[in-house]
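PROTEIN DATA CARD
Card holder: DMT family transporter
Chain length: 311
Origin: Halorussus aquaticus
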Amino acid sequence: MSRYRDAALFVFLAVAWGGSFVAIEVGLESLPPLLFGALRYDVGAAILVVYAAVARDRWLPRTRDDYLAVLVVGVFLITAANGLLFVGQQYTTGGVAAILYSLNPVLTTGFARSLLPGDRLSPLGLLGLVVGLAGVTLVVRPDPANLLAGATGKLLVVGSATSVALGSVLLRRLRPSTDSTATTAWGMFVGAILMHGASLAGGEPPRLADALGPQVVVPLAYLGVVATAGAYAAYFGLLERHSPVQVNLVSYLVPMVTAVAGWVLLGESLTPVTIVGFLVILAGFALVKREALVAFADRYSVEATPPTRNE
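Structure generated from the sequence above:
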């Protein structure tokens, strides 16, 4: 049952984060990036802290690893990851940003080889990462001219993906006693404070009055409730039970979700090349997860085979 639950959480994570790119784009029309990101985590932290206090026994940090886990989440996976991504997207196209951010599983593999020897991928698994990244490129298909122009935005997006990759590996090395939801909640609280500080230090105008308009309330509600409180709780719950390399493969599914959402909600077309990209991404997943797929197929075939009667 837990296997199916984790598969459902993985799909939810891809859908929630895939829709977040649209919400971010809308919200950035009214608020500066760091302030918008800080408000997002204000909402997410408030929801998760209350939930952890009510529904979890171990919700307050106590041990050294508890506090270190909160700092890793707050610094690497919230502040640096989102601050760099929000600012970087102002200087490059969404398509190029999606490609660069999809380096996350590759970068995670690099960190895991040094810090988590037991999580190393086989040569076929590494090939699967490359195949999946090629599929993302086919789905997004950025303008080739934009791949070479504007280095600042691209470096910021790569920095964001690197921060997520390193943070997820560091978190896997720790053994916090608090529940993953509580760790996520307090990490968001730390991240929100740091992002508010960065917003003030960067001279962003408060413009809190703009946060009351529907053009901000709607995307902020989606980001805070679904893409932050819900999705991050799912993400860190998965990291407790699975390799960060495997969990960060969600970065390959996000462009697929975005493309389908654009087709359903905005009437955008799904070209044959996009469909081929979907299939290539799935092939990459199959290479990375081939052992789990083979084990599932073997178990299903055993369960589906009727027992023979000895005459």
